[in-house]
Amino acid sequence: MPPLPPSIILAKHLNDRDNAADNKISNKVNRHLQILISLRVKQLLLTSLATISITVVADTPSDNRLSAIHSRSAAFPAINRDADTALQGDGYGFVNDNDSLLDNLRKISEEGTALEGRSRGILVLPGDESTLVSELENAANGKTSFAAGGHFALLSKNKNWIVVGGAEFNGSGRFFYDEDDATRLRFATVLGLFSFGELQSSINVNALWTNYLGLNYRYTNGSMPDTRIGMTAKIQNISVIERRISIADYDEDKLFDRTRDVENYLQLNADIGLEHQINQWIVGIDLRDIYQQEMIGPEGTRYQQRSHISTNINYTADWGSLRLDVDITPEKGFGELTSRKTYELSTLLPLNAKMDLLLGYQWLDSDTDSDLPTAGLRYRLGEQLRIEVQFSYAGTREFGGGASLQLPL
Q1: Taking burial as the number of CB atoms within 10 A of a residue's CB, which of 56, 194, 295, 343 is the most buried?
Q2: What dihedral do alpha carbons 333, 334, 335, 337 form, nearest 10°?
Q3: Using an 8 Å Cβ cutoff, are 237 and 211 in contact?
Q4: Measuring CA to CA, which residue among 179, 199, 180, 175 is closest to residue 115?
Q5: Is 272:231 a contact under the CB 8 Å cutoff?
Q6: What Cα–Cα distance (Å) separates residue 392 from each residue in 64, 69, 240, 370, 397?
Q7: What are residue 226's phi and psi, to 5 degrees?
Q8: In this model, does residue 18 exceed pLDDT 90?
Q9: DSSP 15
């Protein structure tokens, strides 16, 4: 094949060089377009997230939620400039029957009544008492507890005083098995005469029932605008309940009856709280019941009322909030009511502009109570409307719940 003329070779070389230059320019353009598109997508995503964060924001620890004032005296804003008159109310209940004491007591009552009935018809034979003895032994040292209560808060327009009140009941019962009851039962069946009332096993009950009415006031010093001090002055009645119920007289309605075996103590008292804000953080400390008093139950057991000190840390961000509550001093026990300290971590996550998800977990330093997870929902609308429900569950025999409603008037 003859060689190509120089002119053709030169033209081909120039054409290849131009194609390479075009490809290089095209590659640069494509690369710059990809970078530009990627940056634009990231910008759109960040803008969307920022928009969501601005639109969907959870309640902050210092917002207009009156329910917080019952446990934190400085929780509500110190100056109520724009808030309307509002009324808040809540209620809760919790039961711990992990020892199945309530079921065991019911079985004992039913078996004892049936055995006594057969005895009257002279149908009791030796050995018939074995089921009742087994039920008594099975219930020995079993314990059950129950807590319930409710609060209210009334906020007047353009006034920084909040009327507060509430009732709290906390009770516990333990079954004491008298081992001589087995001998009494066997002797009675031999004679063919059995009376349920002859048994000495019993349920011991201790409970505290507090009712209070007070005024809450918050104060901020101009030189320390980020620090808020709150005080609740109150008059309260503490009912010390102590009773012994024989197994023959057992009835569930008598277990935590608030109208019998009661000693009442009326007192003036106060709670004090302090909260300080540092950017997105709020740190607080609360002292409940400054005045301390010794009280004596109907059976002579002494209850020493102690001031309760707790602290809390709140962190608020666009995505929600975190809160840590810690008992510095324990909740004082009384008889079967054991002392305990609580450590709780909770979070508030906005689901949309009006609905928040509540999640929490309690670690309980207690001889009888289990650690407790909590979940709930909060609906909010405007400055004052708040609807909240929560449920706590540690097992089929240890659970509770509560609800709170706040309405503008």
Answers
A1: 194
A2: -50
A3: yes
A4: 199
A5: yes
A6: 25, 21, 27, 11, 11
A7: -90, 5
A8: no
A9: H
Whether residue 93 contacts residue 165, with contact meaning beta carbons closer than 8 Å, is answered with: no
Residue 380 has which token pair? 């909010």
Please tell me the CATH code under which domain 66-408 is placed. Answer: 2.40.160.40
Name the DSSP class of 110.
Answer: H
Give residue-wise pLDDT tens across range 381-395: 887 899 999 999 999
Would you list the domain boundaries of the chain? 1-55, 66-408
- Residue scoring higher pLDDT (221 or 194): 221
Residues in the chain: 409
End-to-end distance of the chain based on CA atoms, in angstroms?
104
CB-facing half-sphere around the CA of 340: CA atoms within 13 A: 16
Report, in angstroms and rounded to the nearest whole number, the Rg of the chain calculated over CA atoms. 34
E strand or H helix at 253, and its extent?
Answer: helix 252-255
Half-sphere exposure in the Cβ direction for 335 (13 Å, CA): 28
pTM of the model: 0.80
Does residue 62 contact residue 75 with C-beta atoms inside 8 Å? Answer: yes
Question: Contact 215/208 with Cβ under 8 angstroms?
Answer: no
Q: pLDDT by residue (tens digit) across 131-185?
A: 889 999 999 999 999 999 999 999 987 678 999 999 999 999 999 999 999 888 8
The structure tokens listed for 9 are 């070779």
